[in-house]
Amino acid sequence: GKGGYEHYMLKEINTQPNALTNTIEGRVQDGEVTLEDFPEGTFEDVDDVQFVACGTSYHAALYGQQLLNQTGIRAQAFRASEYVDSATGSITENTLVIAVTQSGETADTLGALRGAKERGARTVTVTNVMGSTAAREADDALFIRAGPEIGVAATKTFSSQAVMLSLLSLRLAEDIEAVSAPDDQAELLRELQKLPEYVQTVLDSTAAKRIASRYTGSEAFFFIGRGLNNAVAKEGALKFKEITYEHAEGFASGELKHGPLALVTPDTPVFALFNGDKDRKTLQNAEEAQARGAPIVSVAHADHPAEKISDDFLEIPNTHSMWSGLLANVQLQLVSYYAAKNLGRPIDKPRNLAKSVTVE
Ligand code: F6R
């Protein structure tokens, strides 16, 4: 049942601390990542990583791509629907293909997984459903253990996927000789253990609900972020359009001035995401939008320089840049939820959408 919540989506947003605890459980020990079925050294031959996924899972894959590239491992996230026709030619025997799929049943993603196998790639799926087709067909499966997700809009499974891919990227860095684990791995893993608490802090705040009410009825909604927060900006926009039916777009911050800025007006709030990484540039991009009259809603930790220039502020706990985007994402989930509720939308079953898309 909905456990006292008005919608499954709200329940699922609120149970993220628990979902994340389950995702992490037993996988971090003494400053190291341990993954079941993957003994030390199992990834030592990996040269490059290709992610295949759709929708929200694709945004989690973008997060993974960014982390791997930062570590020095070649990685690319592909839209599963594009992969077989345009990308399998780049597979080598040392390519690891990671299919990210909550349901494990998405036809586009299964098609990409099969295409990768045919080309001889090693395959892993990151999924929420044991016994799913992806789990059966991939060489190995990593379960995110987020618990069943009923709402059509993916929420807790995105958070759990992003964390699972972060752990996997740290394991790859440990196994692959040519790259080294991040200098601050012990610290970022300590912060990961606190992530469920930090998410709870976000859930306990009321700013998202107030901001959703303030801007419901705007002409369009834009989300900007760079690096890991580029993935979060795109996910924030997808969630927003799915359940509110309003026009929303997510951009890499720096891209705004290369075209989308033409859409920015006083009636298009811009949500700017900050995570301590190249924030000065994102701040400047937010100010470019503000100069065209757009209200700026910043998502950042307290006392961040963005607070001074912002029209509204969504606070997140101050944590490692690897995780802060996931806290920003929870704020954006809440904004989408309350905006959809203000508009009277059928939040758990948006029009034209299905929980699991089993046609290509
Ligand atoms: C968005 C959403 C969809 C799915 C996509 C992939 O909220 O739910 O975009 O993320 O259809 O689904 P899975 O992860 O089951 O492969």
UniProtKB/TrEMBL annotation:
Q: Where is the active site?
A: 355 (for fru-6p isomerization activity)
Say which residues of the entire protein are included here: 245 to 604 of 604
Q: Where is this protein found?
A: Cytoplasm
Q: Which domain of life is it from?
A: Archaea
Q: Name one GO molecular function term.
A: glutamine-fructose-6-phosphate transaminase (isomerizing) activity
Cellular component per GO, a single term = cytoplasm
The chemistry this enzyme catalyses reads: D-fructose 6-phosphate + L-glutamine = D-glucosamine 6-phosphate + L-glutamate
Stated name of the protein: Glutamine--fructose-6-phosphate aminotransferase [isomerizing]
Instruction: Enumerate the Gene Ontology biological process terms.
Output: carbohydrate metabolic process; fructose 6-phosphate metabolic process; protein N-linked glycosylation; UDP-N-acetylglucosamine metabolic process
Please state the Enzyme Commission number of this protein. 2.6.1.16
Origin organism is: Haladaptatus paucihalophilus DX253
